[in-house]
Amino acid sequence: MSTPPRRTLRSQAWFGGDSKDSFIHRSWMKNNGLPNDAFDGRPVIGICNTFSELTPCNAHFRGLVEHIKAGVLEAGGLPLEFPVFSCGESNLRPTAMLFRNLASMDVEESIRGNPMDGVVLMAGCDKTTPSLLMGAASCDLPTILISGGPMLNGKFRGMDIGSGTDVWKFSEDVRAGVMSRDDFMAAENAMSRSPGHCMTMGTASTMASMAESLGVTLPGNAAYPAVDAHRARLARLTGRRIVAMVHEDLRLSQVLTKKAFANAIRMNAAIGGSTNAVVHLLAIAGRVGVNLTLDCWDHFGRDVPTLVNLMPSGQYLMEDFCYAGGIPAVMQELSDVLDLDVLTVTGRNLGEAIAGARNYNPDVIRPRGNPLLAHGGIAVLRGNLAPNGAILKPSAASPELMRHRGRAVVFNSIEDYKARVDDPALDIDESCVMVLQNCGPKGYPGMAEVGNMALPKKLLERGVRDMVRISDARMSGTAFGTVVLHAAPEAAVGGPIALVRDGDAIELDVEARRLHVDVSDDELARRKAAWSAPAPAMKGGYQSLYVERVLQADRGADLDFLVGCRGHDVPRESH
Ligand code: FES
Ligand code: MG
């Protein structure tokens, strides 16, 4: 492809000319050792780094960024790295999701306020991918994303073990008395044995796969392990490519189209991806002005089979997925249902970008004729318990519970649940439906990953491993079970889930997409009249802003004033 004639780039509004201000912009930058020609009009590439030692999944980014910089320099650009809020899943309290929107604000304002012509987003741990894409989408410069890559497979006493997924199993085994504490600690060492993010098809790998499916990464981005030399090479090629994207003025909004989101939703079904992708894609679409609704998830994904045999839906891990061919191989299997004409950051359409990809392991990436699950996707449920929708991931659920009627056992907070779940006197059996209230966006706050409540100990000891659970919360992408999530409106705003009481009959019918509490409208109205909102957890600070302005789950749980693209013009001088 020939390079279009050079245009005057955005960064020249800072670095070009002979004014007092241009002196200031250039001179201070030169304290890094930059020569005069660094400011000659070449593309200035911001590299948005979510490195943090408190985000262990992204702690190797100091090394990875050097490969991106090398690529930018090779292509004739000027790389300038900048840090943003790093949303680390494993440590942040009360939940990393509370800070996804905060991080996106940091990203947006850092990009818009600074002299850059294009952006490389360095994502890894769960929330880092959506927060970077949301912020960048609100600016709409040429943008490309690279993931830090998954960890190598966990290896424990001859078994492959997966991040998160096996933690749930091990911790239930400890509670059920079949695993010792020493073995539990040994498993910790064995699970996380290289740099990188979770190597199950949890939220991090799902969001890396979503980014690749949306076309905002180079092909192959999602699956290469963090420590594979392919990852470093991809970083270098990503650095080269963003410089060309600036010359082509290939902006994020040209890639993030409705068709691209439809592809991503279909791919989420095919990979057995995390339920968290629902709120993240809705929020990203909102930033770029694409009309994506919760129902799009059911509509586009419903008939797509799950092909990727990875935990938590299946058996394998990301390293296996990489060697099997990764996302491009899945796209080849699904080429008849994907829109291959969409433009990607490669400058070519999706079909061209994945040409030649092959499936090298039909057990890891199942062929269409032998899927892991005939109907993957996300089921969007409605009914008097969730008028604005709730979701369930069929591939992680138990087939025998997909149609179920049971007696509600209600917990009004996660603390209430923890205090009572193992009480031998708790009136519960495996036919009951566990209901958790006040864990939604405003209620927790931040919509915590607590929807997959562990089962009562007395039932675990009897060998029960799944029950219907319903909440306004999220669940970890590495979790599994017949778990209804994201019920909207949430309990903390008086949604019907707040009105459920012990003993109410609840009906779940996934095939019919129905979620119903068998209580009359009059009785629900009486309960609503007696309901009062819970007191906010914190007064002032970001949490108050969040609780005041956060949208419900069916709108992606973004802050209302952040929806939309505000562009990248900065009309005023800084001095
Ligand atoms: Fe970071 Fe799972 S905790 S990706
Ligand atoms: Mg998580």
How would you describe this protein?
The chain is α/β, with parallel strands linked by helices and 575 residues long. The chain has 3 domains: 42-152 and 194-353, Rossmann fold; 155-191, no CATH class; 379-534, Glucose Oxidase, domain 1, CATH 3.50.30.80. The chain is built from 20 helices and 14 strands. The strands form 4 sheets. It has a 6-stranded mixed sheet with strand order 12-11-10-9-13-14. Strands 2-1-3-4 form a 4-stranded parallel sheet, with helices on both faces. Strand 13 (505-509) and strand 14 (514-517) form a beta hairpin. The chain is globular. The model has no long low-confidence stretch (mean pLDDT 95). Magnesium ion binds at residues 89, 126, 203, 449, 476.
Q: Order of strands across the widest beta sheet?
A: 12-11-10-9-13-14
Oligomer state equals single chain
Major β-sheet annotation: 6 strands, mixed
Count of individual domains? 3
Report the uncertain regions. Answer: none
Rg result = 24 Å
Task: Report the CATH topology name of the largest domain.
Answer: Rossmann fold
Question: Based on helices, strands and strand pairing, what is the structural class?
Answer: alpha/beta
Shape: globular
- What is the percent of helical residues? 25-40%
Assigned CATH architecture of the largest domain: 3-Layer(aba) Sandwich
Could you tell me how far the N terminus lies from the C terminus, measured between alpha carbons in angstroms?
40 Å
Strand content: 5-15%
